[in-house]
Design brief:
The chain is an alpha/beta fold. It is 46% helix and 16% strand. The protein has 11 helices and 9 strands. It has helices at 4-14, 31-41, 62-73, 78-88, 103-109, 111-121, 137-145, 160-169, 191-204, 234-245, 250-263, and strands at residues 19-25, 47-51, 97-101, 123-128, 149-150, 152-154, 173-177, 209-213, 229-232.
């Protein structure tokens, strides 16, 4: 049986466009508003990536760090993310969800407990930023047994030999980090160069769903349409921050932003 992630990519291919993958931090600015944001952007996205607020996020830039800080300050607990997803899945327009975490949060929660709650709430995929291949092989196998995609990461510095091995062990989706940076940084390489690198990866296995993340905004997204999917996160987190500063409703502002991002892919 095909996974929900695989089906989402197949739908996008039929519509001749890349998948739009949103990223927000769970419980930012709080649990209730976080759920409202998810519901508001859901009609415009294909996959929903939700991050765990974390105090020392090695892969995240200032915008996502600010979102994480707000959520932690407002009392985020690990169980909150599962409650948010459970409520989100009750809506008709809910999309496949991917959790983004750091390994020590999973380790402290307990791998088996974590996967049990993922399965129970309908999580489709997991990204674990600081658990690289081959150290992630054991956990990735546990994910597969639960029919949850473990999403491998590739970087511009990944050698071709290592890349082939990672792709061979991968599930239905791979995340390509566009540049050597934390999230939210200005693109250090041109979109043209990113797509050139991306196409070299696609040649290894053409039917593998590979998405691009880092540095993607409404200004750069159109130039990267050749990808199977594009992840926008920091710009959404920044929109939440700006909405709160201006005393605007973040759900309404993100709805407008994500609607415009989607239109740039059509």
């Amino acid at each position: 049986m095909k996974s929900k992630i695989q089906l989402a990519f197949e739908k996008c291919r039929k519509e001749n466009r890349p998948a739009l993958i949103s990223y927000i931090v769970a419980s930012d600015p709080n649990k209730e508003k976080s759920l409202k944001i998810l519901k508001s952007i859901s009609p415009h996205i294909d996959l929903a990536e939700i991050g765990f607020p974390f105090s020392t996020p090695i892969g995240d830039g200032s915008d996502i760090q600010t979102s994480s800080y707000r959520a932690i300050k407002n009392g985020f607990k690990m169980r909150d993310i599962f409650q948010i997803i459970k409520e989100y899945k009750k809506t008709n327009l809910s999309k496949p969800t991917i959790l983004m975490s750091y390994y020590n949060m999973i380790f402290n929660y307990g791998e088996n407990n974590f996967l049990r709650d993922c399965k129970k709430t309908g999580v489709s995929g997991i990204i674990c930023v600081d658990l690289p291949w081959p150290e992630n092989k054991s956990f990735a196998k546990k994910c597969k047994k639960k029919s949850i995609n473990f999403i491998q990461l590739l970087a511009p510095t990944t050698t071709k030999d290592r890349m082939k091995k990672i792709i061979k062990d991968s599930h239905d989706m791979i995340y390509y980090i566009s540049m050597l940076s934390t999230t939210g940084g200005k693109l250090k390489v041109s979109p043209k160069k990113i797509i050139e690198n991306y196409k070299k990866i696609k040649k290894i296995k053409k039917n593998k769903n590979i998405v691009i993340g880092f540095g993607i905004t409404n200004k750069t997204i159109s130039a990267l349409k050749a990808a199977d999917g594009l992840v926008v996160g920091s710009q959404l987190c920044k929109c939440i921050t700006n909405s709160l500063k201006r005393r605007q409703n973040p759900a309404i502002m993100l709805d407008k932003l994500v609607y415009n991002l989607k239109n740039k892919l059509l």
